[in-house]
Design a protein that fits this description.
Blueprint (H helix, E strand, L loop, with lengths): L1 H16 L5 H19 L6 E11 L5 E6 L4 E5 L11 E9 L10 E12 L10
Parallel strand pairs: 3-5
Antiparallel strand pairs: 1-2, 1-4, 2-3, 4-5
């Protein structure tokens, strides 16, 4: 992602000046790209999390389901079984936080769900009560 931003920035700067990028600028771009690649390779692999929490429905931005973890953190579950996306459903979810994804809702971290199971459905509310 950083690589694309660097390339786009260099192209925009060159385009605004109305001149072609010269050899020195190209060399600087190569250095920037190689540095960005090194920075990306230093990133740790995504850590699998196990989270217990409650699915909540929010009517903001067209409506969406979120996961409020028992520890107070908030997540936007992606790829979760639709049958578990019910307001009030208590679940245990295994997944990975996606750090390179943004959402319109900006409610919490985006969580790519690998596995999920229902813990308690006694507090689930019907869709018409949202």
């Amino acid at each position: 992602m950083k690589v694309l931003v660097n390339v786009a920035l260099l192209l925009a700067i060159g385009g605004c000046a109305g001149e072609a990028i010269d050899n020195e600028s190209a060399k600087q771009a190569d250095v920037s790209l190689s540095q960005a690649n090194k920075d990306e390779s230093k990133q740790e692999p995504a850590k699998m999390l196990t989270i217990k929490g409650t699915i909540v429905y929010k009517s903001l931005e067209g409506g969406f389901f979120a996961l409020d973890a028992q520890d107070g953190k908030k997540y936007m579950p992606r790829g979760m079984d639709k049958s578990l996306l019910k307001n009030g459903m208590v679940v245990e979810v295994q997944g990975v936080v996606l750090t390179d994804v943004m959402t319109f809702q900006q409610y919490g971290e985006v969580l790519k769900v690998v596995q999920a199971k229902m813990i308690d459905d006694s507090q689930v509310t019907e869709p018409n009560s949202y």
